Amino acid sequence: MQHSQASSWKRVLTVSAAALALLLGGCTSTIVNMTADTVAENPSQIYTVTARVKPNQTELVKGSLKVQIVIDGQIFPMSPSALGDGLFEFEYHMPAGRTEATYYLLVNYAAERSNMVIPVEEYSELRTIKLTNRYVYTLESVRGPIGARIAIVGRGFTPQDVVYLDSVPARTVFEGPNAISFSVPAVPAGRAYKVSLNNGTTSQDVGSFRVDGLSLTVSPESLNLTTGGRATITFSLGSPAPEGGLLIDVSTDIPKSIVMPEVVIRAGATNATITVQGGQPGQGTLFVNGAGAGEITLPVSVTGR
Q1: Global confidence as pTM
Q2: Cβ–Cβ contacts within 10 Å for residue 213, how many?
Q3: Fold entry, domain 2-132
Q4: Which of 127, 137, 183, 294 is 20 to 30 A from 224, comparing alpha carbons?
């Protein structure tokens, strides 16, 4: 009888993928597959398939539950797991040269319904285990300021890898197959960003990173100019500016009274000095932003000659 049942399932497994997918459309909530679709490759090449199987206990005939996995054209029994009641496991040995395997779970039991005992057969959806030799162990730090260098430790890194904070690329340094690092780009501070690793073909989530503002000071604390007169302003950071430099956003409410260039602190530098010139007489303020340190204000007074 057992031989006949196995032969029957082998015949089922020969149908086309489309037909089998249609056949398996009737899965129920009795089976909850708890196995990840992508798993890290290991030297033993053994991977655990885990599922929670809990038929209706009020109708289950005691001792009738049988849980199996159908994989590689064969049926194997799944064993109760020591991790908890209702959990079943199967240790799958991936054949040499293979990086994935498609399977589904099969559950048989007897149920007592309306004073009758009937056989019940249920099955899960098709799933595929895919191996990866590229994964991340840890993000060295979960927060840091703009320009900070952060390491990522893992496996399978390549020189083509680029780290992104949300959609913003960061300067990425390939340290070796097991380590890379990136410099936190000049993004708005005070919030968390999703860190991902992209090699041009695939993108992999790394974790979450909170960007803190840089310490920024401006000197002098106020400006007194005459029309046509000049003065210097120095912008200083508490740590070196990131790769590509850091643009400091400076605006004013008296644009006709102040003539000034764009402010950029060069990559690796900690300060920048610019020259401003007085225009039409007026009184107002310079508003300084761009390092995530909050807004700094400088009172400005421009008088006629």
Answers
A1: 0.47
A2: 16
A3: Immunoglobulin-like (2.60.40)
A4: 294
